[in-house]
Here is the input.
Amino acid sequence: MKFLFASDSFKGTLSSEQISALLEQAAEQVFPGCETAKVPVADGGEGTIDAVIAALKGTYRRISVHGPLMEERESFYGEFEGDSAIIEMAAASGLPMVPEEKRNPLNTTTFGTGELIRDALDRGYRNITIAIGGSATNDGGMGAMRALGIRFLDSEGQELEGRGRDLIRVSEIDMSGLHPAVSQAHFTVMCDVTNPLTGPDGATYTFGKQKGGTPEILDQLEKGMVHYASLIREKLGIDVDKIAGSGAAGGLGAAFCVFLNAALKSGIDAVLDLIHFDSLLEGVDLVITGEGRMDWQSAFGKVPSGVGKRCKARNIPVVAIVGGMGERAETIFDYGVDSIITTINGAMDINEALERAEELYISAALRAMRMLKAGMSLR
Here is the structure.
């Protein structure tokens, strides 16, 4: 009997590595001498760098960059396999970095994200994966591209900073200074939204409010974003609104596609490919995955659905152990997960559940293993 443990973390309580250790303990207790393998997994959101670095025995690179308001910040990215790096834009341009009273997407920039990419290129990395969730920005990616050497000029030839308020002022795009290593590098962007750059479903009106945009600010930003998209179409011949996901991270998705020729890819699929998940399934009899809470959204770009689909293609059964179940959690059964087991085993409030997370998880893991053993005895 060979198990593979590939669970997302339970936010704020159990890491992916802790969960795997508990599953190993339960498996050995119920199936003495069984073979187990484990791999930390994330879906492109919080904890993605940690999961990839742990799975591939990579290292962290810590550097100083500029935050969303151009303040100096300590940041980091991951290095692995000699030629590869993984970056989270939230580590340089994330919304939590901006105090609530200062949140205004007219003033924020992705410059720091570009600095992380520039450092990775300078150090020789040519396979770069970027997770772009959790942004504080709506600058169309101008800040990040400026850090990589592109100059955005106003009508008087003056270089713009690359903040949201500069979108409306761009008249020329000078790409002559773009980092020379960009042409030799391959960029993959973890993106699970399909929003265009502009329009009612675009970057500004869909995500701008949560970044501090008032209706007046959003209208101003949208006018600027429409102008920016028109300029790219005129100067570079690319209609960014036809690129699904160009509106991700305040238009950073558009900039990555236009200026870096990046490929947009589902976060969970990108992570599973990076950690060579398919090869880990060789000889596996059953996979256990999970996440903190499972509901209908779990079927769309989350760890259980990503793992389930890969396993379903190889006829490998999957059990999900989750903290709790929400509306239409059973939707996951259409995505390769065969059973759901919750860690909650009685009436309790959320604080008690969080405090007892490890105890509740090992209990659920033992129940899962015993159920599997009972199933094996059926004739």
